[in-house]
Design a protein that fits this description.
The structure holds two protein chains of two kinds. Chain A is α+β, with helices and mostly antiparallel strands. In chain A, 54% of the residues lie in helices and 11% in strands. The longest helix of chain A is centred in the C-terminal third of the chain and has 27 residues, at 705-731. Chain B is an alpha+beta fold. In chain B, the strands form two sheets. In chain B, strands 2-1-5-4-3 form a five-stranded antiparallel sheet, with helices on both faces. Chain B has a two-stranded antiparallel sheet with strand order 6-7. The model of chain B has no long low-confidence stretch (mean pLDDT 92). The radius of gyration of chain B is 19 Å and the shape is elongated. The chains are: A alpha+beta, B alpha+beta. Chains A and B meet through helix 1, helix 3, helix 5, helix 7 and helix 9 of A and strand 2, helix 1, strand 3, helix 2 and helix 3 of B.
Chain lengths: 1025, 162
């Protein structure tokens, strides 16, 4: 169907659609916008038809994402056009482009009002629709009486009245006073007698909003609502056109039941009886049918009926019927029903005493935690959280911990928080609580907020019985080789405070404890270093009699950090050093932390805060809040009985009691504790609060060069053990796995192409595409792996492991275990080049698709030339350097044979492509090339490298190469690297044209984006139904 | 209440947007960006609901187009899902087996039709027949106006020629 009479618009849309890329589209759109602007400027020559056409064009351009603000005025002005076609465009486009606060709308109020009170029915409809969609407060104030008149008018046709009803609903939302007129509730009751179902549907929406605000005024509507529901659900008395897949207007049924949920109780026994009869019929009479739409519609009604039953607080029997239904739903295949089953079970928990019946479904709910759909997993998590109590806390929390390993990133933080809260709320014993939190930090350190570890410290501090246990656990974790930094923090803290309680156990002497803590120092950030220093001071204080050797060691550390660039660390080092020489003073100041005052858990508070919603008030929510506070009171009482050790914390308070003072929670506790330390200094350099702030926040400032260096060196030596094994693996024939899945394209060629450019495809097979994009700066690199699932089902058991050679330090961020269908995940890999080497890092990658397990080992393009930066030297700079580096091992010369024949310009291009810059004309002999580059690694820092290649014009397959640098290994490695490049390796795809490498690489430079690959023109013609 | 309606193609192109709640221009673009990412990446056998910033987005894919409606968390999701289907059926009836291309070249019709189905983010009319009748009436109003305009402009053209 073509646009009647608007050829220009069709042509424009076609033009835009034919644009090959965003840039072309922008040019085309800009041209059009320019044209529209000029035409609008001299309005004289503009016919109403043209104006209408331009305004539609603007709406189209707006949908493409461009700014069309300049045309707002013209659009609004069309509203006052005398003829229907222009007026219609004016109204519709205005309501799409502008929002309620726009000044231009104010200018239109009069016109709009004239249309509403005028005689023209079509104009009335247009005006009511626009006001209903974007009318603001001012519209509410000036138009409400007119709209009410239309709604009540007996001479108006239904098409106007239903619009008036919804328009009034909008105005009511903007200003609830619009219905503060005498007798309005009687009029609402009168409106419910309406026979036209279109009008009745709109009126019912209005009623829902009115009763949600103030049900008292509308009691007289209640019996009528029940009557209508009976008429629809029981008598099925509706015109054919208002049935939807055989169901009498499901929407109206849902709305009526929604309205009924806002009335607190139903006293009239007759009404109650007829309502229950209808509800019973819906509950029992809804079957699962094949037709999706019929199923959805009937279940929409069913779920609303469930909500109403819950609200009415029906007899026990009906409630258990509901739970049984929900239990059935959470196990069905249809994902929507499963989702809603879980959601409604959670709601049911809040309003009724059904906890025990729901617990019977616990295993099914836990299964849903592993559903392929994140929406369903979220519901399952919420339900588990809601149904958790003392009896099942252990099971549920352990299930959540296990799930943490595989959970989506999007859910981990919430999951960690919920597990922590449940552990705290329902811990059967405190040691279990400590276990859970430590596991939580161990498994999901990145997602554990500081609050969580502060809280465990508070618990341990306040419960003496727990201290030896916590210290022993902390030691166990510290014995592990790789730990999350938060784990280091909490363990170091606990060991500092309480490791002396373990002193008699094997392996727990102060010295041994000190050693395991100190091992972590090189790997941690400055914030943690501060905590470690406190731990050392505490260990030293607890070592009685003093151990001179340990003391010297710790003093040496304090000495080293006395000049640390980080003020916090420096201050601690200086103070601890001074204090530790004062004997008794040290004991006073560093004595055990006092008990924390009782306060509301900051975690619980956090959980409460996230539950606050700004959405429209809802009956369910209101009831839920009441119920919640009841539940909390119960918990509180139990806690104060002291039957649970947790009780002494007064964990749970009524939300209303929690004052702002509590908000700082755990933070203040630590502020206070640490404040005691820093106060020792007669002139504290910084207020104590700031110090703690520093301690808790990761610092932007880096440590002193010395410290950083030693840290890195340590890290290197620490790594050395592993990479040997890795090297062995790297030697294995890479990319030649015997997989049944065949890669697409040549892996080796892809790798060589990526050695010369920074982005492209590394690997592809029918299921996955792995692209890389890298940035290199000096000896640091960041290589992002793009893992794109090409299928419509998820890839699971995804694992990526980097096997780094000894000269590279790599850190791959977490790779999710599942890649959702058609999704792409990005995994950044940080690379640090420690010293010159041509060894390669290998990505060991595997995933599962259906039953096929695919495992590939891919060389990563983190190659030597990535750490080169071209540098241009003049003759005066080059030659003195060249001469000063005389002979091996700093300067190496070799005659290379079997070189791929290249002309000199081609060779220059090749050199330039791997960042070795050829300086033409530097060497007097035209057959020679002289080139220079800077190499970056941690051991060499920036080091200049000079290269000279002497070619033989008569035999292009051989040449003499001389490489020089200030470091023997570098010279050797660079020489070998260049040799490799010059030899037969297909650094670029063999091509007859003497194209320089970088340009050749260009067409492949961008990873094939999923967008372009799925563009399928045929898809647009596919019928939607 | 429905806060907004979006039609997004599989390639992420916007085909229709209608905002019933207050969103600034900046927020609108942000919503589009976020949601097209969240929804287009979902597999085919998952449920039709996405939880998003404390709201719930009910969506359904028809061929190459995703129809999305955002509602409050406590609203009835299936009811909204069937409003989407109701809308699609009306479009289908109007265009005669509707496809994405119809909605690209006749985007303005999609807006008229939506205005007959939803106002203030609430369902206005659940009878397909009634909606069809109202749209037909609008179309004939437009045609009449056009014919008149044509005859007038013809007359002017004729007059100026002489």
């Amino acid at each position: 169907m073509a646009l009647s009479g608007m050829r220009g618009l069709s042509v424009f849309i076609s033009d835009v659609r034919n644009c090959q890329n965003k840039e072309q589209e922008r040019l085309r759109v800009d041209k059009e916008l320019g044209n529209i602007r000029t035409r609008f400027k001299n309005e004289k020559g503009l016919t109403p038809y043209e104006k209408k056409k331009y305004v539609w064009k603007m709406l189209y351009i707006y949908m493409l994402g461009y700014d069309v603000e300049f045309g707002h005025m013209e659009t609004v002005s069309l509203i006052s056009a005398p003829k229907y076609p222009e007026k219609q465009v004016g109204y519709i486009v205005t309501s799409c482009l502008l929002n309620e606060n726009h000044d231009f709308l104010r200018l239109a109020i009069n016109t709009v009002r004239n249309d509403i009170i005028g005689r023209n029915e079509t104009f009335q409809c247009l005006a009511l629709t626009m006001v209903g969609n974007i009318g603001g407060r001012e519209f509410a104030e000036s138009l409400a009486p007119d709209v009410q008149k239309l709604l009540m008018s007996s001479s108006c046709r239904p098409l106007v009245r239903k619009k008036a009803a919804l328009c009034l609903l909008r105005l009511f939302r903007k200003n609830p006073d619009v219905v503060n007129v005498d007798g309005w509730s009687d009029r609402m009751a009168q409106l419910l007698d309406e026979r036209d179902l279109g009008v009745l549907t709109s009126v019912m929406s209005l009623l829902v909003a009115l009763v949600s605000n103030n049900h008292d005024a509308y009691w007289s509507c209640l019996p009528k609502c029940v009557k209508i529901l009976e008429r629809l659900a029981r008598n099925q008395d509706v015109p054919q056109e208002y049935t939807y897949y055989g169901i009498p207007s499901p929407w109206l049924q849902v709305k009526i039941m929604r309205a009924l949920q806002y009335f607190p109780a139903m006293e009239d026994p007759n009404i109650r009886r007829s309502l229950f009869e209808v509800l019973q019929r819906i509950l029992m009479g809804t079957d699962v049918v094949k037709n999706v739409n019929k199923n959805n519609a009937s279940h929409a009604v069913l779920f609303e009926a469930l909500a109403l039953v819950m609200h009415l607080d029906a007899e026990k029997e009906m409630m258990s019927q509901c739970v049984a239904l929900l239990g059935k739903f959470i196990a069905v295949r249809e994902p929507n029903i499963r989702y809603l089953g879980l959601e409604n079970m959670t709601r049911m928990l809040m309003v009724a005493d059904v906890q025990d019946i729901i617990k019977r479904h616990q295993s099914q709910i836990i299964t849903s935690l592993k559903d392929p759909d994140i929406s369903i997993r979220r519901r399952a998590l919420d339900l588990l959280y809601g149904m958790c109590d003392v009896s099942n806390a252990k099971d549920i929390v352990e299930e959540l911990l296990q799930y943490l390993n595989t959970a989506d990133f999007a859910m981990r933080e919430e999951l960690a928080l919920k597990a922590a809260i449940l552990a705290e709320k329902f811990a059967p014993d405190l040691s279990w609580y400590v276990d859970v939190i430590l596991q939580l930090i161990d498994k999901a350190g990145d997602f554990v907020s500081d609050d969580i570890w502060f809280r465990v410290v508070q618990f341990v501090t306040n419960n003496e019985d727990l201290q030896p246990y916590a210290a022993a656990k902390a030691k166990e974790y510290m014995d592990k080789p790789a730990l999350h930094e938060t784990m280091v923090k909490v363990s170091a803290y606990l060991l500092g405070e309480y490791s002396h309680l373990l002193a008699r156990r094997p392996g727990c002497s102060p010295k041994e404890i000190f050693t395991i803590v100190h091992e972590k120092l090189p790997t941690v950030s400055t914030a943690t270093v501060s905590i470690l220093l406190s731990t050392y001071a505490k260990i030293m204080m607890h070592t009685q009699p003093p151990d001179p050797e340990l003391q010297d060691h710790i003093w040496a550390i304090f000495n080293k950090y006395e000049s640390c660039i980080d003020v916090e660390i420096q201050q601690r080092a200086v103070e601890y050093f001074a204090l530790s020489r004062k004997g008794a003073a040290l004991m006073d100041i560093l004595a055990e932390m006092p008990k924390f005052p009782e306060r509301q858990s900051s975690l619980l508070k956090k959980a409460e805060d996230t539950e606050i919603d700004t959405a429209e008030q809802s009956a369910i929510k209101l009831r839920a809040q009441q119920q919640m506070s009841n539940a909390l009171v119960v918990t509180d009482q139990r806690s104060s009985n002291g039957s649970l050790p947790v009780g002494q914390f007064n964990l749970v308070k009524m939300p209303s009691i929690s004052s702002n003072a509590d908000a700082n929670g755990a933070d203040q506790g630590l502020v206070h504790a640490n404040g005691a330390i820093s106060n020792v200094d007669p002139q504290p350099a910084t207020p104590s609060a700031d110090i703690v702030g520093n301690l808790l926040d990761p610092l932007a400032i880096e440590g002193p060069p010395g410290a950083a260096l030693s840290a890195q060196q340590n890290a290197v030596s620490g790594l050395e053990g592993a990479p040997i094994a890795a090297d062995a693996l790297a030697l294995a024939p890479v990319g030649e796995q015997s997989n049944s899945v065949q890669p697409i394209g040549n892996i080796a060629e892809r790798f060589h192409a990526l050695c010369l450019k920074d982005s492209g495809v590394l690997y592809e097979d029918p299921y996955i595409q792995i692209g890389t994009k890298a940035e290199w700066r000096a000896h640091h690199g960041r290589l992002v792996l793009f893992l794109g699932n090409k299928n419509t089902s998820p890839l699971v058991s995804v694992k990526a492991l980097i096997l780094p050679p000894t000269h590279l330090k790599t850190e791959l961020s977490l790779v999710p275990e599942t890649i959702p269908p058609r999704a792409q995940v990005q995994c950044p890999l940080e690379v640090v080049n420690l010293r010159p080497s041509r060894d390669l890092a290998v990505l060991d990658f595997s995933y599962k698709f259906g039953t096929t397990v695919v495992n590939v080992k891919l060389r990563l393009p983190a190659v030597l030339n990535k750490f080169l930066q071209p540098i241009s030297l003049s003759a005066e700079e080059f030659f003195p350097q060249w001469r000063s580096l005389s002979g091996p091992p700093l300067k190496l010369q070799e005659v290379v044979r079997g070189v791929r024949p290249l002309s000199l310009p081609e060779m220059s291009n090749l050199f330039n492509s791997f960042h070795v810059m050829v300086t033409p004309g530097l060497d007097p002999n035209p057959n020679n090339l002289v080139a220079s580059t800077t190499f970056f690694s941690e051991s060499t820092r920036a080091m200049l490298c000079l290269i000279r290649v002497e070619t033989d014009p008569s035999d292009r397959t051989q040449l003499r190469m001389t490489v020089a640098s200030g470091e023997p290994t570098l010279t050797f490695e660079l020489k070998e690297f260049i040799k490799d490049q010059l030899a037969g390796i297909p650094t670029t795809t063999p091509s007859p044209a003497p194209a320089p490498a970088p340009t050749l690489a260009l067409p492949q430079a961008r990873p094939v984006s999923p967008i372009t690959s799925v563009t399928d023109p045929g898809a647009m013609l596919a019928g939607l139904l | 209440m429905i806060h907004f309606v979006l039609l997004i193609s599989r390639q992420g192109k916007v085909r229709l947007t209608k905002w019933y709640s207050l969103y600034s221009q900046k927020e609108r673009s942000k919503v589009l960006r976020e949601l097209s990412g969240d929804i287009l990446s979902r597999g085919p056998k998952l449920c039709n609901f996405v939880e998003w910033r404390g709201y719930k987005v009910v969506y359904k894919r028809y061929a190459s187009l995703y129809f999305c409606m955002c509602t409050n968390q406590e609203d009835n999701e299936l009811e909204i899902l069937e409003i989407i289907h109701h809308f699609v059926e009306i479009l289908d009836r109007y265009f005669g087996s509707v496809c994405e291309l119809d909605l690209i070249f006749n985007f303005h019709k999609a807006y008229y039709i939506l205005d007959e189905i939803l106002i203030a983010g609430e369902l206005q009319e659940s009878s397909k027949k009634t909606v069809a009748r109202l749209i037909a009436a609008q179309d004939s109003l437009l045609e009449t106006a056009e014919e008149q305009a044509n005859t007038i402009s013809n007359m002017i053209v004729q007059a100026t020629k002489k």
